[in-house]
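Risk mitigation, structural track. In case the binding assays with flavin-adenine dinucleotide fail to produce interpretable data, a predicted complex structure has been prepared as a fallback.
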Amino acid sequence: MKLRTLEGGEIEVEASAIDALKLRLRGALFAPGEPEYEASRTVWNAMIDRRPALVARCLGNADVVAAVEFARRHGVLLCIKGGGHNIAGLAVADGALLIDLSPMRGVRVDVPARVASAQGGCLLGDVDRETQLHGLAAVLGFVSATGVAGLTLGGGFGYLTRRWGWTTDNVLAMELVTAEGRVVRASESENADLFWGLRGGGGNFGVVTSIDYKLYPVGPEIVGGVVAWPASEAPKVLELYRELATNGPNELTMVALMRPAPPAPWLPKEWHGRPIVAMLACHSGDPAEGERVVASIKKLGQPIGDVLVRRPYAQMQGLLDATQPKGRRYYWKSEYLGGLDDAMLERYRAHAAEIPSPHSAAILFQVGGAIDRLPADHSPVGNRDARFVLNLTSAWERAEDDGANVGWARAAWEDLRRFSTGGNYVNFLTEDESPERVAAALGGNLGRLAEVKAKWDPTNLFRANRNVVPRGG
Ligand SMILES: Cc1cc2nc3c(=O)[nH]c(=O)nc-3n(C[C@H](O)[C@H](O)[C@H](O)COP(=O)(O)OP(=O)(O)OC[C@H]3O[C@@H](n4cnc5c(N)ncnc54)[C@H](O)[C@@H]3O)c2cc1C
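Fallback model:
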């Protein structure tokens, strides 16, 4: 069988070596043509169509070690799939050996210690489900089918970020299989250099098989949901958004967005497809206080839909899921913003009015709050001056519409990027981004990341990612 080498060439690996790998796995090994192969190689973004040569579907550390050793021995390109949600499709590479962690979705919650250990193939919803059973939550993201590993290794933000920081700020330890095929732990007290690099440096250092998250009391009932108005109300809605973002408590996190109305049951049929402005809000503290804090949102103008109510936190975590189905074509452009000035908001509204697809949106996520309690070099995630994340999210169905939809996101970004802090979120970078954009995402941390990489992965075995070239490599 032919596989891609690390250098990009091809190598013929004997059938006996492939059979030996198959025998070592408790999970399974798939080649193209087998039905399960398609499920493993397919990722969230249908723009990505890559064909690994082999898929090792792993059930535990021993399987991962076997796959890493195989790749090392034969000099074969490796790629790693957590939740498969990366917009750039970094989980899959042509001709590679794909380590598919999708069966590794176990979560163990230590209630007295307030720690959840999540396996490397977990989705956000897996962790929320187990932790909310105990009224606890980890700091995760907004869409429940996203993989915890990719999200955490790149930083991570969601409704709890303003209270407790980036997701990585709340990681206590990680377990991983290194390029040497060793199982090691990384924490403040074990392999601290590696622990630093893992918190923002992506999959550069190994295959992460388990992550320990610090948990906090949240819910189970919170006040959260979404209110929508006609797009003509956007100036007033965005003004309130800015005011609440400036003066509201860290328990409150909001997301403002403009888009054609989705066919959601809480929106009147006659509005489906017409331009709206909406505000998602989640107050993760005491519900009575939450109702007081969000009252001004509910009172603003004449909403066309309002489902901002008391609800389970776990439900809030899945509220956006239906708008982000697997299998559409997606293209994003994104920047961190330090604030929302009038000129920026005026241009934002103008670009939202030009959206060419019923599925696309111009989104402003609120961050800030606790992220700047830690020093800039605490981890490679950095960007602790970010107050908002602008994400221009194009989503559409047909390949023939690629030009119009990619074009919209790019044109809006070209105009709006002048309002950026200069940084951007590494996990929102698309396939076609330049090394300069990756450098902007990782701030001044690339040099130190290269040193950690040189120690833990000197041959750059893990390169299907936002690759950090080992220092001297
Ligand atoms: C619909 C949607 C919503 C999102 N919402 C948020 C959000 O609210 N907040 C946020 O912060 N981000 C969000 N993201 C971005 C998300 O953090 C990234 O897409 C992230 O890469 C997804 O992780 P994954 O495990 O699903 O990715 P994958 O595509 O599986 O992998 C992404 C990268 O991480 C590496 N990787 C994955 N698992 C491992 C592992 N176990 N060990 C080592 N390397 C690994 C892969 O090799 C690859 O390089 C969202 C993305 C989508 C598509």
